[in-house]
């Protein structure tokens, strides 16, 4: 970008080898930082309108239904490769650049369903193993208080999500009043992402029947707005990988069996699912307590670094001086007024004038760069095929009663149509048989009857 500024001003000479060092010296407010890659959908999804819409909806639902903090939950799935550990620092000989450590060879995929509550509690995990069935030798002698199931690919499904809802979430999070007495009329809030297994109508209908309001996160925002992703899964996976790596250093290189996985993962769960971590996760996402300032849009996380005010700014200083540097002119009339007020322009004024012109040149270069980007984007636009518009999950849950009624009406109509077809077919077969019988004499009928009896 700096080279573009120079070329716009007519200077085509390449930047010197030490230009960046001088730039950092002149601008101590900037420094080299590590960039983190993120999918474009997530960058665009974490926008201020999406954040405001979700938090406004959250506030309205919790207020209208009087949902208490102890009844506000978040659920999500996380995937784990059974034998994958982590790299880390170890003590070794000084002349070595790296130390080779053993890793375990298991690579089967396992999905675990978790849910946490804003009061710091959590429900039993549900582990989904990859395979065609569960085997007794897959579990350790001391079995954690979990639920276990399986699927061909180790992923969750609509069936598993519904079973988790019925056997884990609904009974374990049953509402109670302040004295501990069951309060089935109280509403629960379940915050979750828009995974296809969560949009299943049977799943949503079961929630509706049990006074569980589903609140879906905006698309591609779970990395910053979902409590489990924000504050629990990271320490969970870190603890699990450390335990797996410790196991690898103490054992042979045999594949990680299910029993080893369950043992290591259960230890990691105990370390990560603490009251402090869970409450901190809800607090960091601005959900409990409700605080919109906690969620920062991606655009605000990455302010424009390359700008004329940074490239041409003076070094900042904390020292006080009676001689204040005049402000840099940024518009043409300011330059003219400065020249009129001072018949003999001092050297510092000359530098400010030159700096102001440099800023204008830099702004021109930035505009040219943006125009080039827009031209490239316009060239990339091509007509696309029509596709179905994805329905908003929150609207879908809000209308689940109407959707379920329409679904039942359609099933009733289909059943009635099938019964009508069966009745018509039976009537047609009877009429056809009657016509055949009329064309036969007594001997033919008697012969057929005799054959039927003997057979």
UniProtKB/TrEMBL annotation:
Residues 109-282 form the DDE-1 domain. It comes from the Eukaryota. The lineage of its organism: Eukaryota, Fungi, Dikarya, Ascomycota, Pezizomycotina. This is DDE-1 domain-containing protein. It comes from Neoarthrinium moseri. GO terms for cellular component: nucleus. One of its GO terms (molecular function) is DNA binding. InterPro entries: CenT-Element_Derived, DDE_SF_endonuclease_dom.
């Amino acid at each position: 970008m700096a080279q573009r500024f120079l070329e716009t001003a007519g200077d085509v000479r390449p930047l010197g080898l030490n230009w960046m060092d001088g730039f950092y010296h002149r601008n101590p407010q900037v420094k080299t930082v590590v960039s983190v890659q993120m999918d474009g959908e997530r960058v665009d999804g974490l926008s201020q309108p999406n954040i405001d819409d979700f938090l406004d909806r959250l506030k309205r639902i919790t207020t209208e239904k009087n949902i208490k903090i102890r009844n506000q939950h978040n659920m999500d799935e996380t995937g784990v490769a059974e034998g994958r550990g982590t790299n880390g620092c170890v003590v070794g000989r000084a002349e070595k650049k790296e130390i080779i450590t053993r890793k375990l060879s298991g690579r089967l995929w396992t999905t675990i369903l978790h849910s946490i509550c804003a009061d710091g509690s959590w429900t039993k995990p549900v582990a989904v193993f990859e395979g065609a069935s569960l085997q007794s030798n897959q579990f350790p002698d001391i079995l954690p208080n979990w639920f276990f199931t399986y699927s061909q690919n180790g992923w969750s499904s609509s069936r598993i999500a519904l079973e988790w809802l019925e056997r884990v979430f609904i009974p374990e999070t049953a509402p109670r009043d302040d004295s501990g007495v069951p309060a089935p009329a109280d509403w629960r809030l379940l915050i979750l992402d828009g995974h296809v297994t969560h949009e299943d109508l049977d799943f949503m209908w079961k929630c509706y029947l049990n006074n569980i309001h589903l609140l879906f996160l905006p698309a591609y925002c779970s990395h910053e707005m979902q409590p489990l992703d924000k504050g629990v899964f990271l320490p969970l996976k870190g603890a699990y990988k450390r335990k797996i790596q410790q196991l690898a250093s103490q054992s042979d290189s045999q594949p990680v069996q299910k029993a080893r996985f369950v043992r290591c993962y259960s230890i990691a769960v105990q370390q990560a699912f603490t009251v402090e971590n869970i409450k901190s996760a809800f607090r960091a996402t601005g959900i409990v307590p409700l605080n919109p300032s906690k969620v920062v849009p991606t655009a605000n996380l990455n302010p424009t670094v390359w700008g004329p005010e940074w490239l041409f700014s003076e070094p900042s200083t904390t020292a006080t001086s009676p001689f204040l540097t005049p402000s840099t002119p940024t518009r043409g009339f300011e330059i003219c007024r400065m020249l009129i007020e001072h018949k003999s322009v001092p050297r510092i004024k000359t530098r400010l004038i030159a700096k102001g012109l440099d800023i204008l040149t830099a702004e021109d270069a930035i505009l040219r760069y943006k125009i080039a980007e827009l031209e490239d984007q316009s060239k990339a636009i091509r007509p696309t095929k029509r596709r179905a518009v994805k329905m908003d999950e929150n609207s879908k849950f809000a209308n689940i009663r109407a959707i379920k009624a329409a679904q039942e009406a359609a099933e009733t109509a289909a059943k009635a149509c099938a019964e009508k077809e069966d009745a018509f077919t039976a009537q047609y077969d009877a009429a056809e048989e009657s016509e055949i019988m009329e064309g036969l004499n007594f001997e033919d009928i008697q012969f057929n009857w005799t054959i039927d009896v003997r057979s």
